[in-house]
Prior knowledge:
This protein is mainly alpha-helical and 289 residues long. It is 58% helix and 5% strand. The chain has two domains: 2-87, DNA polymerase, domain 1 (Orthogonal Bundle); 103-270, hpI Integrase, Chain A. Helix 6 packs antiparallel against helix 7, helix 7 (122-137) runs antiparallel to helix 9 and helix 12 (246-253) crosses helix 13. It is globular, with a radius of gyration of 23 Å.
Amino acid sequence: MIEEFLAMLAAERGASANTLAAYHRDLTQAQAWVGDLSRATTGELSVLERRWAELAPASAARKASALRQFYGFLVDEGARADDPSHALPRAATRRPLPKVLSHSEVATLFARAEEEAATQKPEALRLLALLELLYGSGLRATELVSLPLTAVPRDAPFLTVTGKGGSSRMVPVGMRARQALSRWLAVRPTGSKHLFPSRDGHLTRVRLHQLLKALALRAGLDPGKLSPHVLRHAFATHLLEGGADLRVLQTLLGHADIATTQIYTHVDASRLVKLVNERHPLARVSASD
């Protein structure tokens, strides 16, 4: 039943390989402790609370979510008449906000990258192109490093990106990023289908992290504050601060649920208060009175 559940996630929800692997690990681990999950009772499931006691709240919540979805699937398929998942522990967890880069820190980072790119060394030109696409288009690390060469159109200012679950979207590429890409393409090694090739296929996420942290050090910034995710978050946050619509951001970031975008793109509370005071119709009526 676990295999059938995973097949459903892949076919109907477009779950990624990483998601399927995580669900498989969580379910098979629980089954090793409980026995046949498809026949487990509420009493048998209750032992998981003790097993998960040392886990971080987010990890326990993820495992419980996998089991709840599994039992929902069993009920839908008629494999069970009851859903015992109410016996699972409920960990109160709050999704943490990513680290934030200020506008000045972003400027410092780019100044260093552009200074190095002026040497015309391929590694420096590649890094500048990577940086421009992370901050200028809000790509995920996996989306960026796995971009095929065909994703870069000759004239249109858009990239075709394959995101989570195999869904595709068009993301805009600003003039700066287009220029950085052109400079990189002029020196990029030939013979690979990937935009950012490496010896074994394409640049890895781990190597991307390493390159960014090394750049932060050279720029005099805290490397602990910089990652591909932080630059994606800076892209969203700074656009929102500039007046971008939340629905537009949802599309640009490739979020299936607007709630994810709301969590991801936090803004300064004082700016929101000012926005309500200035734009709300009742606020204008009050001011005229």
